[in-house]
Amino acid sequence: MKNYETAMNIMVERFAKDTLIAVATTDGKRIYNRIIDALYENGAFYISTHALSNKIKHVEANPEVAVCSADWFSGHGTGKNLGWVLAPENAEIRAKIRKAFVWYDDVSNEQDENSCFLEIRLTDGMLIKDHHAIRYQIDFTNKSAMLSENWGEFKS
After folding, report:
1. Distances (CA, A) of 71 to 132, 142, 147
2. Residues in CB range of 28: below 8 A, 6 or more apart
3. Would you state the pLDDT for residue 131?
């Protein structure tokens, strides 16, 4: 459990703010990748987007996505359109996104009911620290992580 807690602390330190990640989706024929702003919280990345965007169309057809960050993290997750940003159930994440994304109010049209939040609930990932000296293989679903030091074997 200590490895998981340490890995989660690193995830919060690096990604619990406006951060750029690559998100890969598929339309069933091709893979699409794009860099987007995201906010990490409790095992998920949150993105402000539009319900008519290709990423939402792809996620609704196939919710499996891959993510990657220049801050030494890559992983997989399940995407879900959380719906209109002004829906009452989105109030908490909306407040956090508005605080983290200083540009949010300048580019968002919240009156457009297609303005939505995308949640990517992580299932697994690889978190690297100190230029590969420390690697965490994370199982977000079971809240566990294995540690590898200096390219050694992963251990619980």
Report:
1. 12, 23, 18
2. 61, 62
3. 85
Q: Cα separation of 102 and 81, whole Å?
A: 22
Distance in angstroms (rounded) separating the CA atoms of residues 96 and 84: 15
**Is 151 a residue whose pLDDT tops 90?**
no
Measured distance CA(16)–CA(74) in Å, rounded? 16
What is the Cα–Cα distance from 46 to 79, expressed in whole angstroms?
10
The radius of gyration computed from the CA coordinates of the chain, to the nearest angstrom, equals 16
Calculate the CA 52 to chain-centre distance: 20
| pTM exceeds 0.85 for this model | yes
Asked if 85 contacts 93 with a C-beta cutoff of 8 angstroms, the reply is no
User: Residue-wise over 113-151: b if at least 16 C-beta within 10 A, else e?
Assistant: eebbbbbbbbbebebbeeeeebbbbbebeeeebbbbeee
pLDDT digits (tens, 9 = 90+) for 40-86: 999 999 999 999 999 999 999 999 999 999 999 999 999 999 999 99
